[in-house]
Design goal:
- The complex is a heterodimer.
- Chain A is of the alpha+beta class.
- Chain A is built from 7 helices and 12 strands.
- Chain A has 2 domains: 85 residues, Phosphorylase Kinase, domain 1 (2-Layer Sandwich); 120 residues, Transferase(Phosphotransferase), domain 1.
- In chain A, the strands form 4 sheets. In chain A, strands 3-4-5-7-6 form a 5-stranded antiparallel β-sheet, sandwiched between helices.
- The longest helix of chain A has 24 residues.
- Chain B is an alpha/beta fold.
- Chain B has 2 domains: 146 residues, ATPase, nucleotide binding domain (Nucleotidyltransferase, domain 5, 2-Layer Sandwich); 174 residues, 2-Layer Sandwich (Nucleotidyltransferase, domain 5).
- Helices cover 42% and strands 21% of the residues of chain B.
- Chain B has a 5-stranded mixed β-sheet with strand order 3-2-1-4-5, with helices on both faces.
- Chain B is globular, with a radius of gyration of 20 Å.
- The chains are: A alpha+beta, B alpha/beta.
Chain lengths: 251, 334
């Protein structure tokens, strides 16, 4: 697939940087070996070398089916917020990619490359104990984020990278800052949903381990408050059998 | 094998008769009648009265037009949910009676599953991400592990509901669809700009529209240009569905998208989906409008698939289920 790179990337490909150190002067390329890694729902993800560091270039591409103003507004807003929130997450000890460069005009973020596999792809491959430990860490990190009022917004198994025993949370593209229990509960609801829909055979195990980790981070009481809201949110969905109606008809 | 299917979940009483003997002409009969309220939305009681009144004639027509002796059919299929209770009960009653009288097995069918199955059949798509958009449903669905799983859905009102309610409140409808196009789509054509600060609510894979409805109505009452409001409302609503669909495509790694349901007939929505699919190298199948809306054929066809896989119910258990979710249904035939 041929992709027209945004201007900022094309510019950077031609730039060089100079490092002056005691051992002499070295010249390196600003951006090098850009290759398309994957395509997300709203962004292209490239792998590249940024100032010699293995990096990810995330570019929110313009969408031709959307009116330009609305598209630009959304892309810009999400890019800015994502960069800010990743910084915050880093500072509170959650493993996330480290942002190296952002450009709001072209809706671009360059961040460190996390070498690992998608949690979605390793479920069913690894043994249950390891799966539990990984999911527990996801739950723990989610708890830490929530304690700091960061809501991920798209916490699916596709957005967790596993590097041996380390777990990285990626794609803060839909994240927000919020104190509301409701928003935090939606995070968990989304994670549970992705587990149910894509890994239904491990549903029980993954939910249990996630909740364990979450409780470790926020404490029993706070966790139970959020989990109660998760249940309420599920009942709000359309056509839920267990939802009680005041005037449920009986044949 | 010949199966008769009965649909009555909301405003349509439909009777379809299908066969698996003839690939090209599998539809032997397709009769239907639709309740159209004079004003306002569908009142379940009024609609069910209408369906009960017209239903028997529709059934008679279906058998007459297909010139099939009712005793020759193999099974009776009926949509038991989801939908409006009083309306569903009309179809269920007819189906139970028919099944008992003819002494033929009764096959329960989930209305949403039926939309997906008739869509796959008519578009020829093998394993699509299904975008189900109608007055009562907004869901992005994909088949995984013996069930149609809901990847994303509305957390409050449905897309069709949003468009119809807005149209009604500002006096654009009813009727809501004129010449194959929704009145809000039409009104949006005159829009010049996207209004600022309207809520665009996508939460992971779910979306919500009630805030958008409120914001639109508030802007209307303030005297903001109606065309601009229509444009903004439509773009935000359609694009949130597109975003969720794109996300589902990426998540499931499927390569096909199918549009079903009443709102899927919107030509503007179709264009947008075609453009979106191009980016992801996916193909789009749009169910022909006649079968994208509620009909008896889809119930009959799904009933046929179910019956072949051994799904039947006894009359006593054939009770309507207003909130029967698509992901509660095992799909043994796929």
């Amino acid at each position: 697939m041929e992709i027209e790179l945004p201007e900022i990337v094309r510019e950077m490909l031609g730039e060089e940087y100079v490092v002056v150190s005691r051992s002499g002067i070295s010249i390196g390329k600003m951006l090098d070996s850009v290759e398309l890694l994957s395509m997300g729902a709203e962004a292209y993800i490239f792998k590249a070398k940024f100032m010699g560091v293995d990096a990810i270039v995330k570019w929110r591409f313009p969408k031709p089916y959307m009116p330009k103003e609305l598209d630009n507004q959304l892309r810009r807003y999400r890019t800015e917020l994502e960069a800010k929130i990743i910084w915050k997450a880093l500072s509170i000890g959650v493993k996330v990619p480290i942002p190296l460069f952002t450009d709001l005009e072209d809706c671009l973020i360059i961040m460190t490359y996390v070498n690992g596999e998608n949690l979605r792809d390793v479920v069913g491959v690894i043994d249950n104990e390891k799966l539990c430990n990984l999911t527990r860490t996801v739950g723990f990190y989610t708890g830490v984020l929530h304690k700091n009022n960061i809501v991920h917004g798209d916490l699916t198994t596709s957005n967790v990278i596993v590097d041996r025993d380390d777990v990285y949370i990626i794609d803060f593209g839909l994240s927000t800052i919020s104190k509301r229990v409701e928003d935090k509960a939606i995070d968990i609801h989304i994670f549970f949903r992705s587990v149910e829909s894509a890994h239904s055979r491990f549903e029980e195990l993954m939910k249990r381990c996630f909740v364990d980790g979450y409780k470790d981070a926020v404490g029993e009481d706070a966790a139970n408050r959020v989990l109660k809201t998760v249940r309420n949110i599920r009942l709000r969905g359309r056509y839920i059998a267990e939802r009680k109606l005041r005037s449920e008809w009986i044949l | 094998m010949i199966v008769v299917g009965i649909e009555s979940s909301a405003h349509t009483f439909g009777v379809g008769i299908v066969t698996d003997g003839d690939e090209a002409n599998f539809i032997l009969a397709d009769e239907r009648v639709q309740y159209i309220p004079k004003h306002g939305g569908i009142h379940p009681r009024e609609s069910s009265r209408f369906l009960a009144e017209k239903g028997p004639q529709i059934l008679r027509n279906a058998f007459a037009k297909s010139s099939i002796d009712p005793r020759r059919i193999d099974a009776v299929a009926v949509a038991l949910g989801p939908g409006l209770g009083p309306c569903l009960r009309v179809g269920a009653t007819v189906a139970r009676t028919l099944s008992a009288y003819l002494n033929k097995p009764l096959v329960p069918v989930n209305h949403a599953v039926a939309h997906v199955e008739i869509g796959s059949k008519l578009t020829g798509l093998k394993d699509p991400v299904t975008v189900y958009l109608s007055g009562g449903n907004t869901a992005v669905i994909a088949y995984i592990d013996r069930r149609y799983r809901v990847f994303g859905e509305t957390l409050d009102i449905a897309l069709g509901n949003l468009l119809d309610t807005f149209a009604r409140e500002v006096g654009l409808g009813p009727p809501y669809v004129v010449g194959g196009m929704h009145v809000v789509d039409r009104c949006a054509e005159g829009g010049k700009r996207i209004l600022p600060d309207f809520p665009y609510v996508v939460k992971g894979q779910d979306m919500a529209f009630s805030g958008l409805l409120t914001a639109s109505l508030r802007a209307y009452r303030k005297g903001v240009d109606l065309n601009d409001i229509c444009l903004t409302l439509r773009e935000i609503a359609y694009n949130s569905v597109l975003e969720v669909s794109a996300r589902c495509l990426m998540h499931t790694k499927k390569r096909e998208i199918m549009l079903v349901g009443g709102v899927a007939a919107s030509p503007i929505l179709r264009e947008k989906f075609a453009e979106m699919a191009k980016i992801y190298g996916a193909s789009v199948g749009v169910v022909p409008p006649q079968y994208a809306v509620d009909n008896g054929v889809m119930i009959a066809w799904t009933g046929l698939l179910s019956y072949k896989a051994g799904v039947v119910t006894d009359l006593r258990s054939a009770i309507v289920r207003q909130r029967w979710r698509i992901d509660e249904v095992e799909i043994p035939w796929r």
